[in-house]
Design goal:
This protein is α/β, with parallel strands linked by helices and about 290 residues long. It has two domains: about 80 residues; about 130 residues, Glutaredoxin. It is about 40% helix and about 15% strand. It is built from eight helices and eight strands, in the order βααβαββαβααβαββα. The chain has a six-stranded mixed beta sheet, with helices on both faces. Strands 1-2 form a two-stranded parallel sheet. β3 and β4 form a beta hairpin. α1 packs antiparallel against α2, α1 packs parallel to α3 and α2 runs antiparallel to α3. The chain starts with 13 loop residues before the first strand and ends in a 22-residue tail after the last helix.
């Protein structure tokens, strides 16, 4: 049936109510109902267009419905993007400057670690080991611990020992040759004791020349210094020959109160009563006990 013409006394086509609600819903999506208003505006806009089509010219508002659909689609897309950006920001790891409760400083007083004592150079592993005795070419390392000097001997034994004797003489120090070996707990005990007040008082103005007995065993045996009892301590005369020797068996626990008095008396020639008296340099044909 063809559409009926509108009588002159009749009003023009009325605006579709759904299209009005559609445009209002889409606009509300930018004010309070983020995303939801836009989605509702799209749905109502589509419904309004369908109703206007069925009205066959009796209702207007197709432009409002189309605008509602476009604004609603823009609102939904903008909301999705904003939510994605927010999630990404919240999920990213905290920056280095951000503090946390777990890293907050406590009110307890500071904890002081014991000062390190002349760390010995780590030997290279077997896979990358250089030619024999190459590690002795790195040079002697000297460390000052209060009034005590520790020189880790490396390189040419005779030359470096001569240099250390000259330095000790210039500084007014007594040179003590200190025999150690890797992974020696008593040796580490002596090193730790040097930082204590008892050792600083008893061993002031001593220069300990620390020697790895494994690296320099031929040179030590040539001087007649025993190498089977570690840690060992030797005093040298003006010609560089050993004149006295003791080892770590002269005291009990490896602590400063036991070590310092023995080494202090030994270095100054006052250690007479001994557990293991030294009987002089070993002869070449002598078998160690």
């Amino acid at each position: 049936m063809p559409p009926q013409p509108i009588s002159p006394w009749q009003d023009g086509a009325k605006t579709n109510g759904t299209s009005v609600f559609a445009i209002a819903s889409s606009l509300s999506g930018f004010i309070c109902f983020l995303g939801v208003g836009g989605a509702l505006g799209i749905v109502l806009g589509l419904i309004a267009r369908a109703e206007i089509s069925r009205a066959e010219g009796r209702e207007s508002g197709r432009g409002l419905a189309t605008a509602a659909i476009a604004l609603g689609a823009f609102n939904v897309c903008a909301t999705v993007i904003a939510v994605a950006v927010g999630i990404t920001y919240l999920a990213r790891p905290a920056t280095a400057g951000t503090s946390s409760w777990s890293s907050a400083p406590t009110t307890a007083g500071p904890v002081r670690s014991a000062p390190s004592v002349a760390p010995r150079a780590t030997k290279p592993s077997a896979r990358t080991a250089p030619p024999a005795r190459a590690s002795r070419e790195t040079g002697t390392q000297v460390t000052t611990i209060g009034d005590i000097t520790v020189a880790d001997l490396a390189g040419d034994f005779e030359l470096e020992l001569r240099n250390q004797r000259a330095l000790a003489s210039t500084a007014g120090e007594t040179l003590v040759l200190w025999l150690v070996e890797p992974n020696c707990k008593p040796c580490n005990g002596v090193a730790a004791a040097l930082t204590r007040k008892e050792a600083q008082k008893s061993l002031a103005k001593l220069r300990f020349v620390r020697v790895d007995s494994n690296d320099f065993q031929p040179e030590l045996e040539q001087l007649g210094i025993p190498t089977e009892k570690i840690p060992g301590f030797a005093l040298l005369d003006a010609r560089g020959h050993v004149r006295d020797f003791i080892h770590g068996g002269e005291w009990d626990a490896d602590i400063a109160s036991n070590i310092a008095p023995v080494l202090g008396k030994f270095a100054h020639g006052g250690y007479v009563k001994r557990r293991d008296p030294w009987r002089g340099p070993r002869r070449g044909d002598e078998t160690p006990l």
